[in-house]
From TrEMBL:
This is Alpha/beta hydrolase. One of its GO terms (molecular function) is hydrolase activity. The keyword Chaperone does not apply. Residues 30-176 form the Serine aminopeptidase S33 domain. It comes from the Bacteria. Keywords: Hydrolase. Pfam families: Hydrolase_4. SUPFAM superfamilies: alpha/beta-Hydrolases.
């Protein structure tokens, strides 16, 4: 049975990020980092179930909470897309420092956009997976579109997201709009798997098309038909993990052989 380890590591702005390592039995095929979506956390259905299922198939996974979520210190309101990308690098640095260099990067929703932004400068990676990712980080702003005028006028506003009240600041809105991922995707020199539901009502399927069209080969697309954006369905997360393990396996094997 895979084991579970609670870990922590430094984040940006002096924060400490709480993480979980899903550790396979025996010698892992590789190590992955899972970057969760906007305000979701490491224990969201997609992050926890896919990570645990991958560990059962021999791939170790680090998932972690952004600042201000779960047991991570700091304030979520102080975060931005820029800090999300920086903390993704911090997570990969943590794995390396513990003797587990990450060879697979997985990002869900806005975490997928962060993975696309971060992957190009991570030399240990062998493959990249996005799940329900937006082509533009600014796409997230539609979640609080009704409050954008208030945020602009007052500098911030409280918004109900995912069953919790969060403060959205104008700095976050501006930061989301300041990032264009096209160059990151076009210059990406990694095998890329794009997973997306054609009926995703939060991040439309056209985002997957834009990412796919901008990316180089080898690139693959898998339709997660029947899945909701947050992937609350266990059969969908089980299926996604099986596909990721099968697709990434050859690249992780090659990376392990080259590193041995």
């Amino acid at each position: 049975m895979p084991e579970f380890e609670s870990v922590s590591f430094p984040g940006v702005n002096g924060t400490t990020l709480a993480g979980a390592l899903d550790v396979p039995d025996g010698d892992p095929l590789g190590w992955a980092v899972f970057c969760h979506g906007f305000a979701l956390g490491k224990n969201s259905a997609a992050a926890s179930r896919i990570s645990k299922a991958l560990a059962e198939q021999g791939i170790g996974v680090l998932r972690y909470d952004a600042a201000g979520l779960g047991r991570s210190t700091g304030s979520w309101e102080d975060g931005s897309f820029t800090t999300k990308v920086a903390d993704l690098h911090n997570a990969m640095d943590f794995l390396r420092s513990s003797g587990r260099p990450p060879t697979l990067l997985i990002g869900h929703s806005l975490g997928g956009a962060a993975a696309l932004a971060a992957a190009g400068s991570e030399t240990s990676l062998a493959a990249l997976v996005t799940i329900g990712a937006p082509f533009r980080p600014s796409h997230v702003a539609h979640l609080f579109a009704d409050e954008l005028e208030t945020i602009a006028a007052q500098g911030q506003a409280d918004v109900e997201l995912g069953g919790r009240t969060l403060t959205i600041r104008q700095e976050l809105v501006e930061d989301l709009h300041s990032h264009d991922l096209r160059d990151c995707i076009e210059s990406l020199n990694l095998p890329l798997l794009i997973m997306h539901s054609p009926t995703d009502e939060t991040v439309g399927i056209e985002n997957a098309s834009e990412i796919f069209n901008a990316a180089r080969h080898p690139r693959s697309f898998v339709s997660l038909e029947g899945s909701g954006h947050l992937m609350p369905e266990k059969d969908q997360t089980t299926r996604a993990a099986a596909i990721i393990a099968a697709w990434a396996g050859i690249y992780l094997q090659q990376a392990r052989a080259e590193g041995s």
